[in-house]
User: Fold this.
Amino acid sequence: MITGTEHEYSINDASFNALPVSDLIIQEICGTIKPDISFGEVVLGKELQKTVLEFIPKSPSSYLMTLEQQLVQGMNDFYTKFPDQYKLLGLGMHPTLTLDHTAVWDHDEQDIYTTYDRLFNIRQHGWLNIQALQVNLSYSGEHQLITNYNKIRSLLPYIIAITASSPMVEGKLTGIMDNRLIFYKKNQKEIPQICNRIIPERLRSINDYTRLQNEIFDELRLRKADILCKEWLNSSGLIIRFSRNCLEIKAPDEQECIYSDMAVCAFIKALMRNPLSYIPQDQQDLLDITDSAIIHGVSKLEPELEQLYKTAWKHSTQEERHYLPLIQNRIECGSLAERMSDIYKQSGNIIAIMKDMSWCLQKNKPYQ
Assistant:
């Protein structure tokens, strides 16, 4: 199974104030402003918010270590180019960002962003302060597509629990471990089918998916938003990218380092080799588990996650076993969000926490 990943990192000054300068960074590297550029072993890309830069491995691969090597080289190249100017930070949201300190990309694709803003108001955290780890898994043929789609769909609540890393909004703990998805679930509430409460319905055939997609497109056309009628519009936690022959998992929060991102990929890939008949398939059950994962992280789901981990280990490759102990650690000790919350309650120093997390990203060392 070919894997591709996309990683979103906030751009900060030395005091971890977010900087809306993705366009200036791209311009300094290549001499002009483009939506994405080749940068050694990675592609650097813009996001809607200018405070975020996306890192994508130059080549998808069957091997997670190959993806990790490309991304680590890209991160090293970035800090070689900008040794003192910027600090990059993972996590599902920037912990202290206020909306007056961000900005919308104002170069290409303005017709798309203007339409989004007219329909949904993009000047909110659900658009301008979210950072996801996106995992793209290839498929071959409709049978594999449907089988893998339904497996991943049922795994989404547990992936959300393990990857929760956004416990803070505008410098305050909210008591919720995945605030990114709280905002994300409602950022297109005017047409709720687009996000579908994160968890998509079970598929029997590709026609089920295209039927829902066409219903969304009909709603958009009624609102004179035809420009958004593209396959990437779907904002569920799992979508099909027919143009790439892959399933795109959009639910996970970005983690603190590339190694941790690869561990999430290893967990998913190992579980894909098992029928997973013991976890819920019912839509309402999955929605309820998702709500628990968003609020509590792993703490309310430890028995289920431990069972999933045993399954993953049993069906994992040697390479995946290199990464999987990190997932075991998250299950036993809590998601990043739970750890960040505990540390902040003790120290009250969010800047120190962000400094540690940024160091983890730069050095590719999981947070301990």
Observations:
- The chain is about 45% helix and 10% strand.
- The CA atoms of residues 231 and 241 lie 7 Å apart.
